[in-house]
């Protein structure tokens, strides 16, 4: 069995929680463990946050005025795309932006490396993605954007095998 979904949303920090929940909802019919869901949500959160903060340099997102009106604050044009492919018990997640890209992917993936120390970024995003997923690949071209490819095998093989 193969199932796919794709979402595209504005590159604003307010949408990070939406992205995590959307991917978790996509796999929920497989009854993953709470640990598996937490791993997936954390990895998606890190990848989306990297796209927004580093790819598009969006630091603010949406907010409310003193009068309660919603306003957009310093939101650059940009979209984040998430595509998920579920093949039996194997989940593939692709998080893509068309932002500024990275010069040196290997350096960016080093634990504690950050290009935004002034924002108190820990530099652990890729390390978390790598720890919580079974496979991680990052493809980036300066001036064109970045794609984070992650995979995780879910412990539901028996359930899926019996439905086929």
Explain the overall architecture.
The chain is of the alpha+beta class and 164 residues long. It has one domain: Histidine kinase-like ATPase, C-terminal domain (Heat Shock Protein 90), CATH 3.30.565. The chain contains five helices and seven strands; from the N terminus they run E-H-H-E-E-E-E-H-H-E-E-H. The chain has a five-stranded antiparallel beta sheet, covered by helices on one side. A two-stranded antiparallel sheet has the order 2-3. Helix 1 runs antiparallel to helix 2. The C terminus is likely disordered.
Structure keywords:
7 strands, 164 residues, Heat Shock Protein 90, alpha+beta
User: Which structural class matches the secondary elements?
Assistant: alpha+beta
For this entry, what is the oligomeric state of its chains? Answer: single chain
CATH superfamily: Histidine kinase-like ATPase, C-terminal domain
CATH architecture: 2-Layer Sandwich
Distance separating the two termini:
7 Å
> What's the mean pLDDT score?
83
What is Rg? 17 Å
Number of helices: 5
CATH class: Alpha Beta
Give helix % range.
25-40%
Summarize the structure.
This protein has helices at residues 16-27, 34-55, 105-108, 125-132, 157-163; strands spanning 2-10, 61-64, 70-73, 79-87, 90-97, 135-141, 145-153.
How are the SSEs placed, and which strands pair?
Layout: E1 2-10, H1 16-27, H2 34-55, E2 61-64, E3 70-73, E4 79-87, E5 90-97, H3 105-108, H4 125-132, E6 135-141, E7 145-153, H5 157-163
